[in-house]
Design a protein that fits this description.
The protein has helices at about 5-20, 65-90, 135-145, 150-155, and strands spanning about 30-35, 40-45, 50, 95-105, 120-130. It folds into 2 domains: about 30-65; about 65-160, K homology (KH) domain (GMP Synthetase, Chain A, domain 3, 2-Layer Sandwich). Strand 1 and strand 2 (about 40-45) form a beta hairpin. Helix content is about 35%, strand content about 20%. The chain has about 180 residues and is of the alpha+beta class.
């Protein structure tokens, strides 16, 4: 496990580099997903490969966590990492960090029923931090981490999304007479 001093040193180094050379922090990143078997998706990013899927009750193979689980995990882990990072940077000792992410779901939207929108109705997260520091110091860590969490920001302030479709080996529909 990374020690607070290691985390603080890396954080300070990255802040300095990005302050001096902002372009270093501006890049594109890609994660590749390919359907393997029915609904099972192999997710590849850099040197990591893992599976995502839906449960058998949705016709899936239950071979891995579903997209909504991964979305909640992305939020919770981003927040948790932010808490330990900001705690290290601010020199606030932390013994344990836990985050629970809870979402209200109406699955009808996923199945096109009753004009219900797909997606969550609300999301809540609960933060539990064990620290010998004062509540004010820990609250400052939480506020700073939340304010700088990219995943929390993206959920609160959706970013523009573009779609590109590439047809490979698709049969073209014959032109209809005019």
């Amino acid at each position: 496990m990374a020690e607070p001093e290691t985390i603080r040193t890396a954080f300070e180094r990255n802040r300095k580099v990005l302050s001096l050379k902002p372009k270093k922090g501006q890049y594109k990143t890609t994660t590749h997903i390919r359907v393997q078997d029915g609904t099972t998706c192999e997710v590849q990013h850099k040197h990591w490969t893992f599976l995502a899927d839906v449960g058998e009750n949705q016709g899936g193979n239950d071979a891995g966590p579903g997209p909504s689980v991964l979305e909640r995990a992305a939020l919770g882990s981003c927040l948790a990492i932010g808490y330990v990072t900001w705690a290290a940077f601010l020199e606030v000792p932390v013994d344990d960090v836990q985050v629970d992410v809870e979402a209200d779901v109406d699955a009808r939207g996923t199945f096109g029923i009753d004009d219900v929108s797909p997606g969550y109705r609300a999301v809540r997260y609960r933060v539990c931090i064990d620290s010998p520091a004062s509540e004010d110091a820990v609250q400052d860590v939480i506020e700073k981490a939340d304010a700088h969490s990219p995943v929390l920001h993206n959920l609160r302030n959706p970013v523009p999304i573009e779609r590109e479709v590439i047809f490979t080996n698709a049969k073209k529909k014959p032109s209809e007479p005019s």
